[in-house]
Inverse folding.
């Protein structure tokens, strides 16, 4: 299956990188099921609080679906950007389901191994993080977008700059704001 | 958290980000000043800073940076017999390193109550005695104070007879490591390099040479400031040898301390033990710059040789390659891992790093690395000047002119190749030949042909004599070979004098000479003088030649062209049209016909009627292709003109095609360094700019400017026109601060040369107004625009494309100034003119519609605004592209209409698409981007007010 699909996804990515909006839609349709399935497998059977590393998931899907030799940097960036959005949605859905079933006992944690923030625990409750990001988007949309790319796709600052089309210094400033704000929101009470 | 409102957080975000740009010392004061009495805001910002520190930042952020980091800062502390001992007034604490000269220790001042840390260098060899010269030198060094130089504190001899030097202690790392760790880009690296040069410059002014510049001697601490160590130490060491040789009576050789030098940074003269000057430091600075830019040391022939005193190395120049060739090996298709790593440490890719270094930076580095000290920059000042010019996007001086253009152009005009010596004389005898051909072509009657031939011979003899005489007259110092000591200008002056004096009784010859000289003056930019001569030629011919003589067309063309260059299009047009009629009447296509078509097309195009211009240029191209096999200057000229006209019609692909062909022809016929090549590059650059490739565009435009500056000099009108255009381009690209001074300069020059009411002055005023306006200085921009508009009304009238541009700009400015009524009427005016002249689906119509829509939003007239914005967006998507930033702006205005009408979902979708596009194209802090960001805020507010869910 993966072999058959690989070139198609790569083409979609390239087309999308060339500003073909429709390709974005079709890309979403093509990648989302794969990502969700993989996440479900990973999350299934976990009864207690679990910790998941979103970036690992994305890389796995990436390797599976994308022909890396033909994929330009831009298309790689696009992939990670869209996958970050998807994985955030998947994890939230999953956490919400667990909450319904287990009355709050099954918290899903996001592991922040790649993006360490001082003053924040190494793992975060996905729902709390999502709520904080929604609120942050209301304050500074760009900071929230950057945080999403950093947390859920594991992009470096430089990669984030390229995906968002912002300058690196702008990304840096906004990221510092976002981090500090999130640390204040989610960190241990002072 | 709950105590701080969302609105306060939004403001806190802005304050926080602004504060990050401040130095860490000034940050607190800055935040307090901005927050004023707003305690809630202050506490929000302070709480953010409590959770974000610089140190945490450097530990994180870029995983890759860790890989670049090179081990611990200092060698582990070792014990040494020197620990705890007193040296001068300092107590040695522990060793911090060893260098070629000896050991280095951290020390502290042992006496007095001031706590002062210092670094002590103990020179390995013993020092016989301290001389009075040594003491004097020590005093000079102690007086050397500069923020980027580690202070020299003391020097002396220990009890055991070892020389020591005490320096300010700098806790830092080599500046090359620092730049790599922070992944500083080329601009930031150059800024640091300029600081380093500033320190060297300061020392040179105090007659102190460093002679051992290398990364280990340029450290950067946490404050990011480079500090140069060990200034003047080599001199102290020299003195030691001087006193040694005095004691032993051996002949004194300067700089025998070369054995301590790091060979790769040492200059050829240093290695050969020759006389050292400040140029030695310039060489080392070149090596440092190369390393800073590429991450590698420059490759020279010498690097592989021993080089100590080898005389072969003196004779053989090194074949240094520029830094650009050291960042990407083009022989392999893909960049190697090493190339990728070095580029990534500069926050770029190997390919764009190479592009960035090509040209200017190559030339600067190579100029520093010349073997002969006298071939390098005269002083570090000059080096700094070039780096600054490069940073300010001005042409640098390290790239020399490749031919004496002023003779070259005059000669080339007549299709000749010329050797360097006696160029002028040869040129003019050949000129005669081309005139014979021309005369034969146009004069079919036998007697006329004979007359013409005789005349041509006379022309030749006359001009040849003139140049010989002028040459003899001006050559004050006759050297072994005739040189370029006579400029064309001087020769022209001399010959026009002679024409006036001697040829009174030969009207035809006199007219032809005057016309030739007049046109040469147009080329030299001295148009007033040209017009005088061309007028005279015309009136002589009218009196003396039959009415159907082809030379009349030449007179009319020449004078019409000169008048057009003076901005007097109204006077020029009837002449050029008459020339066109006259030359069309000849039965074969001629150079006169080509000239008429090109000049008239140019005139029509300047007036803004590019459709009519295109027709003329297309005819010109056909004529030129008939006249020239293989295609040469005339074809190229027609192609360039056609390309420019196509560009203003918005036919970018067609334009690019013509301009590329033209550039190719010119480079073949003219060589790289020629103003006509520059013109073609310039035109092509703008087409590329409009197509969106700003890297390639700015490269072409800068190259064009640098060519004209090199070959014509910086005050030539053509150079100034390129400079003005470069200013326009910087504005176009959004770099308004860099553009403003350039545009002010060109405005000043335009006024000075062309008078206050010249149409070019109007263009300059408009360009300057835009640059000022986009920096947010709205009030300052208004008078410039109004003046531009007044000139436009006077020259072109109301119904003109250019007048419409200025009218539109004024309207848009008034809108931003919130003088809505005035803005509305001005913009309606611009819209009406534009629709009438361009049709109602033209890009410029849509641009005016966008502003009008935004204005309507301000009146809360959302329905009408939506109608206008939708129309604008549709036109822009069709004429530019759906992704273009102008389309995005129209889209964001449409979004705002939808917010006003309560359609939040649709508005959000539009803004999500539009904002990043505007930010990417114009910069996040640009005015259009900020306007779009405000629209996002408005959406959030409107949603919050209506109780709808916030962004998901």
């Amino acid at each position: 299956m993966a072999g058959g699909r690989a070139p198609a996804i790569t083409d979609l990515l390239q087309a999308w990188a060339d500003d073909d909006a429709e390709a974005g839609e079709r890309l979403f349709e093509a990648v989302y099921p794969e990502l969700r399935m993989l996440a479900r497998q990973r999350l299934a059977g976990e009864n207690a609080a679990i910790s998941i590393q979103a970036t690992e998931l994305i890389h796995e899907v990436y390797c599976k679906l994308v022909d890396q030799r033909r994929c330009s940097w831009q298309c790689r960036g696009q992939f990670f950007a869209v996958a970050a959005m998807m994985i955030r949605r998947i994890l939230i859905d999953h956490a919400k389901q667990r909450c319904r079933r287990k009355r709050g006992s099954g918290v899903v944690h996001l592991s922040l191994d790649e993006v360490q923030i001082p003053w924040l625990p190494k793992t975060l409750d996905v729902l709390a993080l999502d709520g904080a990001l929604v609120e942050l988007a209301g304050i500074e949309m760009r900071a929230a977008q950057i945080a999403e790319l950093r947390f859920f796709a594991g992009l470096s600052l430089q990669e984030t700059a390229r995906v968002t089309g912002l300058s690196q210094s702008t990304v840096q400033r906004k990221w510092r704001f976002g981090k500090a704000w999130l640390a204040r929101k989610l960190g241990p009470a002072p | 958290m709950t105590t701080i409102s969302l609105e306060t957080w939004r403001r806190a975000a802005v304050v926080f980000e602004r504060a990050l740009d401040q130095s860490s010392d000034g940050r607190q004061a800055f935040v307090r000043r901005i927050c004023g009495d707003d305690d809630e805001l202050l506490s929000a910002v302070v709480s953010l800073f409590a959770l974000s520190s610089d140190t945490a930042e450097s530990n994180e952020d870029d995983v890759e940076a860790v890989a670049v980091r090179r081990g611990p800062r200092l060698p582990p502390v070792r014990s040494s017999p020197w620990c705890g001992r007193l040296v001068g007034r300092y107590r040695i604490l522990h060793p911090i390193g060893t260098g070629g000269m000896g050991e280095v220790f951290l020390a502290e001042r042992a006496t007095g109550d001031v706590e002062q840390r210092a670094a002590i260098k103990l020179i390995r060899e013993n020092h016989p005695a301290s001389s009075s010269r040594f003491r004097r030198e020590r005093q000079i060094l102690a007086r050397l104070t500069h923020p980027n130089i580690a202070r020299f504190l003391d020097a002396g001899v220990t009890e055991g007879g070892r020389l020591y030097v005490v320096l300010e202690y700098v806790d830092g790392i080599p500046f090359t490591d620092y730049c790599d760790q922070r992944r500083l880009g080329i601009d930031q690296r150059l800024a640091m390099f300029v600081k380093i040069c500033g320190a060297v410059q300061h020392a040179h002014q105090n007659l102190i040479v460093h002679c051992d510049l290398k990364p280990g001697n340029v450290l950067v601490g946490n404050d990011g400031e480079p500090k140069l160590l060990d200034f003047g130490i080599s001199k102290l060491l020299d003195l030691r040898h001087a006193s040694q040789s005095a004691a032993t009576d051996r002949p004194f050789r300067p700089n025998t301390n070369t054995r301590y030098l790091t060979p790769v940074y040492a200059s050829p003269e240093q290695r050969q033990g020759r006389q050292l000057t400040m140029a030695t430091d310039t060489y080392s600075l070149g090596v440092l710059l190369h390393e800073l830019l590429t991450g590698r040391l420059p490759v020279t022939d010498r690097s592989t040789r021993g080089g100590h005193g080898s005389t072969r190395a003196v004779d053989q120049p090194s074949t240094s390659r520029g830094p650009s060739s050291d960042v990407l090996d083009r022989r392999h298709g893909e960049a190697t891992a090493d190339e990728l790593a070095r580029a990534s440490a500069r926050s770029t890719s190997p390919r764009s790093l190479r592009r960035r270094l090509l040209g200017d930076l190559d030339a600067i580095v190579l100029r520093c690395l010349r073997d002969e000290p006298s071939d390098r920059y005269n002083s570090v000042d000059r080096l700094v000047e070039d780096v600054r010019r490069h940073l300010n996007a001005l042409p640098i001086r390290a790239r020399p002119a490749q031919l004496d253009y002023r003779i070259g152009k005059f000669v080339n005009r007549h299709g000749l190749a010329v050797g360097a010596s006696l160029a002028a004389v040869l040129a003019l005898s050949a000129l005669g030949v081309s005139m014979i051909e021309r005369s034969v072509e146009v004069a079919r009657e036998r007697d006329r042909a004979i007359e013409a031939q005789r005349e041509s011979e006379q022309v030749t003899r006359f001009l040849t004599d003139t140049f010989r005489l002028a040459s003899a007259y001006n050559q004050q110092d006759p050297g072994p070979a005739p040189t370029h000591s006579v400029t064309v200008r001087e020769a022209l002056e001399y010959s026009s004098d002679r024409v006036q004096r001697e040829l009174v009784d030969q009207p035809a010859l006199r007219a032809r000479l005057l016309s030739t000289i007049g046109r040469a003056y147009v080329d030299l930019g001295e148009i007033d003088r040209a017009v005088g001569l061309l007028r005279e030629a015309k009136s002589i011919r009218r009196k003396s030649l039959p009415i159907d003589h082809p030379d009349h067309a030449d007179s009319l063309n020449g004078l019409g062209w000169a008048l057009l260059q003076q901005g007097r299009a109204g006077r020029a047009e009837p002449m050029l049209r008459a020339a066109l009629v006259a030359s069309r009447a000849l039965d074969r296509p001629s150079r006169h016909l080509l000239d008429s078509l090109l000049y008239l097309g140019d005139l029509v195009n300047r007036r803004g009627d590019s459709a009519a211009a295109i027709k003329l240029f297309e005819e010109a191209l056909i004529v030129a292709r008939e006249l020239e096999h293989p295609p040469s200057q005339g074809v190229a000229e027609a192609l360039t003109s056609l390309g420019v006209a196509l560009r203003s019609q918005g036919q970018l692909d067609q334009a690019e095609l013509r301009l590329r062909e033209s550039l190719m022809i010119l480079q073949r016929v003219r060589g790289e360094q020629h103003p006509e090549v520059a013109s073609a590059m310039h035109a092509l650059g703008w087409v590329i700019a409009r197509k969106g490739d700003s890297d390639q565009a700015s490269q072409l435009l800068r190259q064009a400017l640098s060519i004209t500056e090199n070959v014509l000099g910086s005050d030539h009108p053509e150079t100034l026109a390129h400079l003005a255009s470069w200013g326009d381009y910087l504005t176009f690209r959004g770099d308004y601060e860099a553009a403003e001074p350039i545009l002010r300069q060109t405005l000043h020059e335009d006024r000075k040369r062309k008078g206050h009411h010249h149409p070019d002055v109007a263009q300059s005023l408009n360009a300057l107004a835009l640059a000022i306006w986009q920096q947010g200085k709205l009030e300052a921009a208004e008078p410039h625009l109004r003046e531009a508009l007044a000139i436009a009304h006077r020259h072109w009238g109301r119904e003109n494309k250019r007048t419409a541009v200025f009218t539109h700009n004024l309207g848009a400015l008034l809108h931003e100034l919130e003088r809505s009524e005035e803005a509305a009427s001005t913009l309606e005016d611009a819209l009406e003119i534009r629709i009438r002249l361009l049709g109602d689906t033209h890009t410029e119509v849509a641009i005016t519609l966008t502003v009008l829509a935004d204005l309507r939003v301000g009146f809360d007239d959302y329905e009408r605004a939506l109608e206008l914005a939708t129309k604008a967006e549709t036109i822009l998507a069709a004429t530019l592209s759906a992704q273009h930033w102008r389309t995005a702006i129209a889209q964001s205005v449409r979004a705002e209409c939808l917010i006003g009408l309560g359609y939040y979902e649709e508005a959000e979708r539009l803004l999500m698409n539009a904002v990043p596009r505007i930010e990417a194209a114009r910069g996040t802090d640009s005015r259009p981007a900020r306007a779009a960001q405000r629209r996002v805020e408005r959406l959030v507010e409107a949603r919050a007010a209506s109780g709808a869910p916030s962004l998901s």
Q: What stands out?
A: The interface with chain B takes residues 19, 114-119, 134-135, 137-141, 143, 156-158, 164-168, 170, 172-177, 179-181, 183-185, 187 of chain A (CB under 8 Å). The longest helix of chain A spans residues 73-102. The CA atoms of residues 84 and 152 of chain A lie 5 Å apart.
